[in-house]
Amino acid sequence: MLYEEITVKLGPGDRLLIASDGLLDATSKAGEVLGEEGLATIMRTNRATSGIGLLEAMVWSVLAYTGGRQEDDISALLIEHLGQSA
């Protein structure tokens, strides 16, 4: 499998979320996939939260969305720029 290399420059207050497909593929009891829009809603709802608190809120939101049943694992890495710009 080939991966594309990209460069991302983060400024103060920026966040970068890297997550496995299990997050976007989370499915509700009605069969609706969370997808990018659902994830964006979760991130907006929890925008005042940072670090581990944001990741925990994200996991709890996904569990609520799926009704507690998750068919695929979820891995997530959150990178936050907390300092001042260079």
Identify low-pLDDT runs. Answer: none
What structural category characterises the helix and strand content? Answer: alpha+beta
- Strand element count: 2
The overall average pLDDT, rounded, is 92
Question: What separation lies between the terminal Cα atoms?
Answer: 36 Å
Number of helices: 3
Instruction: Please tell me the total number of domains.
Output: 1
List keywords for this structure.
two-stranded antiparallel ribbon, 2 strands, alpha+beta, 86 residues, single chain
Describe the structure.
The protein is of the alpha+beta class. It has one domain. 36% of the residues lie in helices and 12% in strands. Strands 1-2 form a two-stranded antiparallel ribbon.
Topology, pairings included?
Blueprint: E1 15-19, H1 21-24, H2 35-45, H3 51-66, E2 76-80
Short description:
With 86 residues, this protein is α+β, with helices and mostly antiparallel strands. The protein has three helices and two strands. It has one domain.
